[in-house]
Design brief:
This protein is α/β, with parallel strands linked by helices. It is built from 17 helices and twelve strands. Helix 8 packs across helix 10 and helix 13 runs parallel beside helix 14. The relative contact order is 0.13.
Length: 434
């Protein structure tokens, strides 16, 4: 039995890991984080009772297929259940009663557009005795690609790309997306009325705002057109005349809290970043670790967050620093941009700030298995990272400045690749200080 396995099976006993064992243990913590939000384990307990009429399932997001499959397994066989699960390419899984459609993320494509049109037509046919069971997870906003009337998909894609490069937090990005959409910001609920609406959501956003998760297709939108216009101006995002014209129309405003649209709508959070982090924190404390938890709602520029957490790691000793949330990466106009991802950028900045400090290791990865738009979940660093990079001819600071952190860790062989996890409760970060 390895010392790591013995360590994990011996609660309340602190065992010192050797340097070679620490990266394996940190990777194991990431796997625990993912497992804590597995729809197969957590979703069934939140399912509503079948209605008098039929049940239409609409799922959107990186966890859409796994949430749909978990529903199928728990739903009574004799009760009708049909629907569509719209997920990212390679995130699908086999379902029996639900059609799974894969489309592009984070920039939408025609498949997502066509699927959104289809499901809106089906939702519009629901009656008072029917149930719309909406399963929402991170990524749903880009996948539900149905621009408002007068806006083309290409125009919506261009705005989406600009928002992704702007460094705007997810809540601000989705404020703009909601006001350019025919399905987000409560619009899906408008079409579903008078049917009963139950939304089960996996949160991938800081502070778990229901209207931000997948841009809240079935919940009231507290943001306004004026908010969207201000954000577009603040981030200097050029908009075509069609979008300017749309935002000037009264019907560009989304349905607000208190609207009759939501009289029969219920929203339930099945998994949150805080639940994921709490599960890992508890398991680490049971194993005897001194755990410092910074919370699951950290936002900010990746390299700034890295500098702050490096300072914390260097100020203490023998501790495990855990956090979640969603940082951002800002790419200025004309600035070089290689292959990145917010977790890799965070780790490269962290390694530079730590400057080879002995006994300090870290992991940062996205629980959905995809760091940004690359094929990795994240990466790992240790005391030798910068030394190994220099020996390989890599200029760490230049690669950070060029937002090329993926390439940095790829050349070192330190990327974490899990493939799609089919869940999404945002990022997990752990810093081990010996």
């Amino acid at each position: 039995m390895s010392s790591i396995r013995a360590f994990c099976e011996s609660p309340n006993v602190s065992v010192n890991l050797t340097d070679p064992e620490i990266p394996t243990y940190l990777r194991q913590l990431f796997d625990r984080a993912v497992a804590a939000a597995d729809p197969a384990k957590v979703l069934a307990q939140f399912l509503p009772a079948p209605p008098k009429g039929r049940t239409l399932l609409v799922a959107a997001g990186k966890a859409a297929a796994s949430m749909a499959r978990a529903t199928e397994l728990a739903w009574p066989k004799e009760e009708p259940l049909t629907g569509i699960a719209l997920t990212r390419y390679d995130h699908g899984m086999t379902c029996e009663r639900i059609e799974v459609i894969e489309a592009a993320h984070p920039v939408p494509d025609n498949r997502g557009h066509e699927a959104a049109q289809r499901l809106m037509k089906e939702v519009a046919q629901l009656g008072e005795d029917d149930l719309l069971l909406c399963l929402i997870s991170g990524g749903g906003s880009a996948l539900l690609a149905l621009p408002a009337e007068g806006i083309s998909l290409e125009e919506k894609k261009a705005i989406n790309k600009a928002l992704l490069m702007s460094g705007a937090p997810i809540g601000e990005m989705n404020t703009v997306r909601k006001h350019l959409s025919a399905i987000k910001g409560g619009r899906l609920a408008e079409v579903a009325a008078p049917a009963q609406i139950v939304t089960l959501a996996i949160s991938d956003v800081p502070f778990d705002d229901p209207s931000t998760i997948a841009s809240g297709p079935t919940v009231p939108d507290p943001t306004t057109v004026a908010d969207a216009q201000e954000l577009l101006a603040r981030y200097e995002i050029a908009i075509p005349e069609s979008i300017r014209t749309h935002l000037a129309k009264p019907d560009a405003e989304t349905p607000k809290p208190g609207a009759a649209t939501f009289d029969r709508a219920e929203f339930v959070m099945t998994s949150r970043p805080a639940d994921m982090l709490d599960a890992v924190v508890q398991s680490c404390r049971e194993e005897g670790h001194e755990v410092v938890t910074l919370g699951a709602d950290i936002e900010g520029e990746s390299r700034v967050v890295a500098a702050e957490q490096a300072a914390l790691a260097l100020s203490g000793s023998k501790q495990l620093i855990l956090s979640g949330g969603e940082t951002t990466v800002t790419v200025e106009a004309g600035q070089p941009c290689g292959r990145g991802g917010r977790n890799c950028e965070y780790l490269l900045a962290l390694a530079i700030a730590l400057n080879g400090a002995p006994g300090v290791y870290a992991v940062a990865a996205d629980t959905d298995g995809i760091d940004g738009s690359e094929d990795n979940a994240g990466a790992m660093i240790g005391p030798e990272t910068l030394k190994r990079a220099a020996e390989a001819g890599l200029d760490a600071q230049a690669m950070l400045d060029g937002h090329d952190a993926y390439t940095f860790f790829e050349k070192l062989g330190d990327l974490i690749k899990t493939g799609p996890t089919r869940t999404n409760v945002n990022d997990f970060r752990a810093i081990w200080v010996s």
